[in-house]
Amino acid sequence: RCEECDYDLCIACCNLARCSMTVAEVKLRTHHSYQNFVAIVVTAAVFVDVLGTCIILPSLSSLCAYADGGPVDTIMDMPISMEEKQAILHTKISPHAFQGEKGAWSGR
Prior knowledge:
Layout lengths: L22 H8 L1 H34 L5 H6 L5 H11 L16
Helix pairs in contact: 1-2
């Protein structure tokens, strides 16, 4: 509230620095085009965040499987024969983790 004229939004009679609202807040409340701009920027940021999650999430399991102390290390530390370890790795861990599937982009 303005201390001089007791209005919520005072631009005419006093300096904005003394009012409770900042210039950006006044602009956001009064300009329809600025409201649209803020809504578009927020929506775009959320879209990019969700898109990034959708792209990264499928690859994380392959990356985490071969990380230090991950499932592959745990399987290799088990007191079983190498053939049994290979069978577990073949059924539990993706064979295409770092090679890519046939016909997929090789990254080169």
